[in-house]
Amino acid sequence: MRKTVLVSDESGNEYEPTFEKRARGLVKKGRARWIGDNRICLASPPDHDFRKDTEMSENRIEPALTVEYVLGQIEKISAEPAYIGEAIAKIDNSAPEKSGSIAAVVEARESTNRAVLDFYRQIYSDLNAEAHAMTVLEKAVSTAGIPMGEVTNMLNRLLGFESAK
Q1: Which of 37, 86, 90, 105 has the most CB atoms lying inside 10 A of its own CB?
Q2: What's the count of helices (H) and strands (E) in the chain, helices before strands?
Q3: What residues are paired with 34 via a beta bridge?
Q4: pLDDT, tens digit, 9 for 90 and up, residues 17-47
């Protein structure tokens, strides 16, 4: 089965084709009328045209990740603890069962914020070359079995110096 019935509205806007059985149902319910053998006209078009959203999303330009953007996002997360005060006020004024639920929601929110902060911290270290180099060195030093000479060579390569041999 194919969508063979063309759909338009009174303004002339074209919509996606539909199945014949669906078109007959729309006409029967008074939501559309036949204007041709395989074309219906909607009595009241949809409130929302999803094609416009598709067109806009195709044209959207994603901002490049920068250190300033990451720091701004971290600042936003740390600047919105107002919900904690609201939760405490609700806990004081509510039954014990409800206060446990509110506490669980706040705890989940804080857990999510910690995960997001860890994610932004990782992006920041990837964008900031010095921080990334320090992270690599800290991992190398803390890993057992890597000789100190290799750690020194890694440091020299990260800083752009010739490796000592």
Answers
A1: 90
A2: 7, 4
A3: 40
A4: 999 999 999 999 989 999 999 999 998 766 6
Dihedral of the alpha carbons of 67, 70, 71, 72, in degrees to the nearest 10? 120
Question: What are the tokens at 31?
Answer: 């939501």
Name the phi and psi angles at 58, rounded to 5. Answer: -70, -30
Taking CB atoms within 8 Å and a gap of at least 24, the contacts of 127-134 are 127/65, 127/66, 127/67, 127/70, 128/67, 133/158, 133/159
pLDDT at position 163? 46
**Beta pairing partners, 136:** none
Looking at every residue in the chain, the average pLDDT score rounds to 78
- Cα(67)–Cα(62) distance, rounded to whole angstroms? 15
CB atoms within 10 A of CB 89: 11
Token pair for residue 54? 């598709």
Strand ranges across the sheet with 39-42: 14-18, 5-9, 39-42, 32-36
pTM, rounded to two decimals? 0.39
88-98 tens-digit pLDDT: 777 777 777 77
